[in-house]
Write a structure and sequence with these properties.
disordered N terminus, globular
Length: about 290
């Protein structure tokens, strides 16, 4: 094989790295935006979900019309349902969880979901990848063990359910022929569920939206969700389910640092240790070995 061919192959194999980094930062930003909006009661969880997904859908539809006028939307009703369940449970869980803790629970559940899928599909799991997954999962267990610094169990379980929904959504993107069209279609298909949720909340007179809450919800929808998820669908079609799952476990570390710097959340010893263990497991599973 010529040097030029080898160089091209290496470039093709790593072309997803920068888009993946953008997506992972966007995922962490979602945790920070949501926590900022809900922490001081600037908006209720249901309104945050509705505004987040609706603004994301509007942004993606506008982008589609500007870049590809006349092209049909993709996606599926399964994708729309998974997206809605993830976003709603995500918001409810963040009423009590810190940005870093919530992201750690969320993407731990994502990892388990996607590795279970990989196992059912008989994807080859290397011993080092399995060891990395086990180490990262041990970090999550360390965080959730009972104690003074353990997060509220019910909120943690709700966030874990959100992670299962996001894992399913990511897996649906593996066969995506057009990430932008499919993401836009999934967001559009979540709107009927949002109308039901918004209607129920309006009848119960439980909605509460301030200008600050509206700003954070739209930033989450347009920047961190609409743009981030479209790029992520382009990434997951180029990597294995186990790689996609393991990569996402770096998000809690990013979200934890963001929560400390931007929100002023405390960095407990347990959270720091758990984050380091998780990041070590991610690195072990993803770093290329000899001959790769």
């Amino acid at each position: 094989m010529s040097i030029r061919t080898t160089s091209s192959a290496r470039h093709g194999n790593s072309a997803w790295l920068w888009p993946a980094l953008f997506s992972l930062v966007a995922f962490a930003a979602n945790s920070i935006f949501c926590r900022l909006a809900l922490r001081d009661g600037a908006i209720d969880a249901e309104s945050f979900t509705v505004l987040r997904l609706a603004s994301g859908a509007a942004f993606l539809l506008l982008l589609m019309r500007l870049r590809r006028p006349g092209q049909a939307l993709g996606g599926s009703w399964k994708g729309g349902l998974a997206l809605y369940l993830y976003a709603y449970l995500f918001s409810v869980a963040y009423l009590q969880l810190g940005a870093g803790v919530g992201a750690l629970v969320l993407f731990g559940a994502v990892q388990i979901t996607m590795f279970a899928f990989a196992w059912l599909k008989r994807e080859r799991l290397s011993p080092r990848t399995l060891l990395g997954m086990a180490i990262a999962f041990a970090g999550l267990v360390m965080l959730l063990l009972p104690g003074a610094e353990a997060p509220p169990l019910l909120s943690a379980l709700v966030m874990a359910a959100s992670g299962v929904a996001w894992g399913a959504y990511s897996l649906l993107g593996k066969g995506s022929p057009d990430p932008l069209a499919d993401t836009a279609g999934n967001f559009l298909r979540s709107l009927p569920l949002l109308l039901v949720l918004g209607g129920v909340m309006a009848l119960l007179a439980c909605t509460h939206v301030t200008p600050v809450g509206l700003l954070f919800a739209m930033a989450s929808g347009v920047l961190a969700s609409g743009a981030g998820y479209a790029v992520w669908y382009g990434v997951v079609k180029q990597v294995s389910a186990q790689q996609a799952a393991t990569m996402q476990l770096s998000v809690p570390v990013i979200a934890t640092l963001g929560g400390v710097v931007l929100i002023g959340e405390p960095m407990s010893l347990r959270l720091l240790a758990a984050s380091l263990v998780v990041l070590g497991g991610v690195a072990l599973a993803l770093l290329p070995g000899k001959g790769r």
